[in-house]
Amino acid sequence: MRSLFSVLGAQVRKGLFEVQYGTALTVRAFGAVFSGGAVRRRDIIEQMDVLGAGSLGIVALTGLFAGMAMGMQFSIELGVFGAKDYLGRMVTVSIIREMGPVLTALMVAGRVCSGIASELGGMKIGRQVDALRVMGIDPVSKLVMPRIVAVLVMLPILTIIADTLAILGGWGVGTTVGHLSFDTYWASVDRGLTVQNLLGGVIKPMVFGVIIGAVGCTSGLLSAGGARGVGRATTEAVVKASILILIANFVVGYVVIKALGWA
Amino acid sequence: MIAFENVDFCYEDGTQVLFDVNLRVPDGTTLALLGASGSGKTTLLHVLLGLLKPTGGRVLVDGQDIVPMREKALSDVRERMGVVFQDGALFDSLTVGENVSFYMRERMRLDEDEMERRTLEQLKYVGLSHTMDLMPDELSGGMRRRVAVARAMAAFRPTIMLYDEPTSGLDPITADSICDLIRQVGTEQKLTSIIVTHRLRDAFKVADRLVLFRAGRIYFEGTCDLLRAATDPYIKRFMA
Ligand SMILES: Nc1ncnc2c1ncn2[C@@H]1O[C@H](COP(=O)(O)OP(=O)(O)O)[C@@H](O)[C@H]1O
Ligand SMILES: [Mg+2]
Q1: Residues of chain A whose pLDDT is less than 70?
Q2: Is 3.30.70.2750 the CATH number for B1-80+158-177+191-240?
């Protein structure tokens, strides 16, 4: 039994160390945002292109099919209460508040967080991170900051794209399967687009973006043990980021509701 | 002048790797650091670069103790040092040209033409001007080391060059050509060099003095001739 406890103890210590390291890394990255000049601005734009633009396809598909599925289920369920006219609003609210930000973030976590972790992990074990330090270049400012900022900026944009396609998907299904008129659907959508919903819908992806960037960088830079270690760090990064996103989704949702009131 | 004074080093997991290392490398000379795998050669280089903090002792670069230095002050000292890491440590997402011009792009204000001119000059120097647009994984092991040398030289004009196993994994002919390059760079630029290797042949080829490491301690220090003449059984085994 002692060995079980010591194993658990080591796991907890490792976890706490990672949280501490990741937090410090994120704080330092934000401290480095404005100190890099033109070279760093170029790095940020490059990462936005790699991480953001590359995710456009999967995010668009995710949004479209999530919206279509919801349009179908809600129009059946609302039909039972004779409230089919509310379809647009139901789809809009659930997409903007919950499904859009969470699904987009989870998809991006799968693609981007793992990419960051494996790239930085490879650089760590290949001594490229040491090579940077030897040249007097801070790896936090060169590697971590541009990635966190890029995901922070791109994820809200990707989320808005996913939201838009989801609402369009809901409309497509609502009018064909649910026999709603164009005007009814869009008037109802309009009522769902409150300031509270829109604000919450953009704050969430910003928080999720920082989580994805920070977890990816932390896992990469802490990876050890050769290619196998990098592989493990990569998979774990996606799992950790996904769980943190779901936790943060509840917390941020709660804070937004507390701060802005029910829509 | 590089000097290690009573340097001890422990990794975080508690394994002590360096024991009371005392070593001097006078300006303009080349030292070969020999030793079996795991004897602490790479660790010693990383201590000299300030990438690892020794648990005891002093590390002097041109009279300055780098041990208490923070990253900012260290980067000034590192400006004087060029490093070729084990396997080269080229940035594998960048082309050869971008690798060589990396420091210029990051830290010097040069226009594109000047940067390209200097990059090409450095690549020419190591005999690889045609590889400018290739990716590192399209290069052979020997070419990668050469590019790493070019990158280290292009950065800043270093006065100290450190090489970590620059010939490992290479065939004897390529290895010799890398040694020639190291020798040439050292004499032309009047550099102080440390070359870590486990190949005696390299050491004899490039070094003024030799140090043999054994389990984190200096086991032998002296000239090539002295090492050849040694009768100590461990040295004899190492030379065999
Ligand atoms: N990050 C590390 N953590 C713990 N021990 C390490 C680490 N890196 C190297 N070591 C150990 O330190 C010793 C010396 O390693 P190193 O300096 O790389 O030797 P060399 O370069 O002479 O082959 C080895 O026994 C190695 O296992
Ligand atoms: Mg080594």
Answers
A1: 1-2, 262-263
A2: no
Residue of B9, B17, B34 to test ligand 1 pocket, by largest number of atoms within 8 Å of CB = B17
Which DSSP string corresponds to B121-139? HHHHHTT-GGGTTS-GGGS
Pocket of ligand 1, beta carbon within 6 A? B 11, 13, 15, 17, 35, 37-43
ipTM of the complex in this document: 0.89
Tokens matching residue A2? 């002692």
Closest atom of ligand 1 relative to the B36 alpha carbon: 22
A127 touches chain B (CB under 8 A): yes
pLDDT per residue over A170-228, tens digit each?
999 999 988 888 899 999 999 989 888 888 899 999 999 999 999 999 999 999 888 99
What is the B86 CA–ligand 1 centroid distance (Å)?
A: 13
Q: Count of CB contacts below 8 A, A vs B?
A: 49
Q: Is position A21 within any domain?
A: no
On whether the CB atoms of residues A132 and A139 are closer than 8 A, the answer is yes
| Neighboring chain A residues of B49 at a CB cutoff of 8 Å | 130, 134
User: Is A36 part of a structural domain of the chain?
Assistant: no
How far, in Å, is the centroid of ligand 1 from the Cα of B18?
A: 10
- Number of domains forming the structure of chain A: 1
Which tokens in the block code for residue A246? 């779901």
Spell out the alpha helix ranges (H) of chain B.
Answer: 41-48, 71-78, 96-100, 102-107, 112-125, 141-155, 172-188, 200-206, 224-229, 233-239
B179-192 pLDDT, tens digit per residue, is: 999 999 899 889 99
Please, which residues have CB within 8 angstroms of residue B30's CB and are 6 or more apart in sequence?
A: B182, B183, B186, B191, B192, B193, B194, B195, B206, B207, B208, B209
Whose C-alpha lies nearest to ligand 1, atom 13? Answer: B38
Query: Any idea which residue has 């990051």 for tokens?
Result: B106
- φ, ψ of residue B49 to 5 degrees: the values are -80, -5
